[in-house]
Structures are given as structure tokens and as C-alpha cells.
Design goal:
The chain has about 90 residues and is mostly helical. The protein folds into 2 domains: about 5-40, no CATH class; about 45-85, no CATH class. About 65% of the residues lie in helices and about 0% in strands. It has helices spanning about 5-15, 30-40, 45-55, 60-75, 80-85. Helix 3 packs antiparallel against helix 4 (about 60-75). It comes from Moniliophthora roreri (strain MCA 2997) (Cocoa frosty pod rot fungus).
Length: about 90
């Protein structure tokens, strides 16, 4: 976690966890994990997959494109007609 937004998050949480101040807010492992997920996971996975699907282009091999398309299409919750249109 260097040179990215993760570094800022890591430093903030490390400072909080290592604070010698007895009045400092104590964080449980569960709270730490939940905060991590909220900071780095997309809030709308279907929308994230739709955006990636729209930007997906066939580069070297058709089977790689097909695999990526299928993987993303499952996350978008598109119906068959929408998947056919997106695959064109």
C-alpha cells in the first residue's frame, strides 16, 4: 500500500491503532475490516461491472475476451437481450 490512496488509509489506521493516548478511540478487528471494505470495495458491483463491460475490447485472443465478457456479464445482472447487444 504505497503511492496510492491505500497508503493514506493505512497510515491513518496505523496511527489510530498505535496511539498511546488512553482516550483514543479503540477499534475492533471487525470494525477495521468493515472500514477497509467500505474504503476499497465498489459500492455498486453491478454498475462497476457494467462500466468494465462497456470498456472491454478484444485484444489478442477471442477466448480471453469471451471469458472476461462472461465473468462481467454475470455481475451486471443483464438479461440475455442486453448481453447480446453488449457483446456486439
Amino acid at each position: 500500500m504505497t503511492d496510492r490512496p491505500g497508503e493514506f488509509w493505512k497510515n491513518k489506521k496505523t496511527d489510530l491503532l498505535l496511539a498511546s493516548d488512553t482516550e483514543a478511540e479503540k477499534v475492533t478487528r471487525g470494525e477495521f475490516i468493515e472500514d477497509f471494505k467500505m474504503s476499497f470495495q465498489p459500492l455498486d458491483t453491478a454498475l462497476e461491472a457494467q462500466m468494465k463491460l462497456r470498456d472491454l475490447k478484444m485484444k489478442e485472443r477471442a477466448d480471453e475476451y469471451t471469458y472476461q465478457f462472461t465473468y462481467l456479464a454475470k455481475q451486471t445482472r443483464y438479461n440475455d437481450a442486453a448481453q447480446i447487444e453488449a457483446f456486439k
